[in-house]
Amino acid sequence: MSFRIIGTGMHVPSKVVTNDDLAQIVDTNDEWISKRVGVKERRFSEDEFASEMGLKAAQNALENAGVKAEEIDAIFAATVSGETSSPSMACMIQNGLGVSCMAMDVSAACSAFLFLLETAAAFFALHKEYNKILVVGTERMSGILDFADRSTCVIFGDGAGAAVLERGENYLDSVITVKGGDTVIKIPHGNGNSPYFKREQDSPYIHMQGQETFKYAVTAISQDVSTLLERNHLTFDDIAWIVPHQANKRIIDFAAKRLGISQDKFFCNIEKYGNTSSASVPIALDELAKSGNLKRGDKIILCAFGGGLSNAACLIEW
Ligand code: UT7
Q1: Which of 139, 176, 197, 292 gives the lowest tally of CB atoms within 10 Å of its CB?
Q2: What is the mean pLDDT of each run of 10 residues along the chain (318 residues)?
Q3: Cis before residue 204, ω within 30 degrees of 0?
Q4: What pLDDT sits at residue 198?
Q5: Closest CA to ligand 1's atom 3
Q6: How far is the centre of ligand 1, averaged over its atoms, from the C-alpha of 246 (Å)?
Q7: Cβ atoms within 10 Å of 31's Cβ, excluding its own
Q8: Which one from 19, 60, 275, 311 is the annotated catalytic residue?
Q9: What is the Cα–Cα distance from 177 to 216, expressed in whole angstroms?
Q10: What dihedral do alpha carbons 293, 161, 251, 233 form, nearest 10°?
Q11: 153 is catalytic
Q12: Ligand 1: which residues within 6 Å by Cβ?
């Protein structure tokens, strides 16, 4: 019991921040960011919260799928940079769409879109009456960046991506790994107001050990993609596209090299948006779908990695 993706959507804020713009406030330069990360510009929100971006991406996906919001049986959403922990992001988006249906968040940082798809597959199997599920990843990463930490703040951007799933048979296989409690990526909550609490707390920004994460990511992509191919008796010739989490162009290049395939097999749009965490895979998928380079029946692999630590991949027939 699984699903097929019948529509994708995205929304990014209008404010474009180039590497040169960032170099005005951070000790960095366009050459370093372009070479080491592959980002040329990112969007930073001036007036939209993550839930508002998520709502717009959801509306865009519904429109592209030709589906009315009332037809949705469940909304699953993900964020690490939402404006509230409660209501959840999924509840905020449900409210914005003006519908009443099952709605909940799944927390898995940059891997989260893959976790949302897996959750949706489980709910389709559990609830025979469910026919359509909306999944949304949305981030205002600019709100949790420490602009004094130049190796981390230059890679991220804001945006939202969404997909409408319909009961079907096209979610062919998936692999999910969680290495719980590893804090090479950490986003502490700023909830230290108790007069009784005696422990020191980290600042409420994203803290990342870049090189450790980099190594984890290259291994995760290569292993997950290989597992899906082997388990399904496929070769790279059978795969039209690999759509990876857009964290660093060099991670994608290293993974391609390790897998012995051309980087062209990987869809990449990091240069325009940077790393938008849970939104990066659905934004990439939406741009790929709209590019006309994806045909119904194509087999694609989505893969992601991030905080948790976690990594996941899935094989989909488009
Ligand atoms: O989506 C969640 C998962 N996250 C990721 O996948 C991120 C994975 N990691 C990375 O993409 C990379 O590790 C970073 C882009 C975050 C950092 O790149 P790096 O090559 O690991 O740089 P580094 O932090 O080890 O720094 C290398 C050098 C240092 O200079 P020295 O000590 O060698 O002279 C840094 O001070 O680069 C310097 N540097 C910079 N220079 C200009 C670090 N950041 C910058 C910067 N501009 N923004």
Answers
A1: 292
A2: 94 98 97 98 98 98 98 98 97 98 98 98 97 98 97 98 98 97 90 83 92 96 98 98 98 97 97 98 98 96 97 98
A3: no
A4: 85
A5: 306
A6: 16
A7: 10
A8: 275
A9: 12
A10: -60
A11: no
A12: 28, 32-33, 36-37, 110, 150-152, 154-155, 185, 208, 210-211, 213-214, 217, 247-248, 251, 275, 306
314 labelled catalytic:
no
Distances in whole angstroms, Cα of residue 63 to Cα of each of 49, 53, 104, 125, 280: 22, 15, 22, 26, 20
pLDDT at 1: 66
> 245 catalytic, yes or no?
yes
Matching CATH number, 2-169, of 3.90.380.10, 3.90.850.10, 3.40.50.2300, 3.40.47.10: 3.40.47.10
Question: Class for domain 173-317, per CATH?
Answer: alpha beta
Bridge partners of 162, per DSSP, are: 9, 136
In terms of C-beta density within 10 A (0-12 exposed, 13-18 middle, 19 or more buried), how is residue 197 classed? exposed
Q: Tell me how far the alpha carbon of residue 154 lies from the centroid of ligand 1, in angstroms.
A: 9
Residue with CA nearest ligand 1 atom 40? 151
Residue closest via CA to ligand 1's atom 47 equals 28
pLDDT at 104: 98
Quick one: which atom of ligand 1 is closest to the CA of 37? 15
Residues of the chain with CATH 3.40.47.10: 2-169, 173-317
